Amino acid sequence: MKLPEFKSEEEEAEFWDTRSLTDYLDELEEVTLEWSPEKDTCPGCGGQMNENFIDVQLNGLLIPHILQYQCPTCSTIKISEDALLRVNRIDTMIKQYGLAGMILQKMMVEQGIGK
Ligand SMILES: [Zn+2]
Fold it and tell me: How far is the CA of 54 from the centre of ligand 1 (A)?
């Protein structure tokens, strides 16, 4: 399925509220995410948020190096949108292949015997 062009983040959010990411997995791999400086602005107080990288546990699978923002003023935490997309895709893949399948695939890639 083809992804439409979004005019705003609100429009994109509404779109994803009513659709499943799984229908667009092929499209998502083609998407290049752009950096926008507004993304590290705190939604709570409007202040500048600090970036840091965390490891996330998802259904027993460790996803390293997830970018999150933390506000030093009001302690609001948010995860970057590209990291969220990544987590959502991994979550979808776990549901599709099962965790054992994911780990096996990762091991095969690391050992150069699979893709
Ligand atoms: Zn804040």
Answer: 19
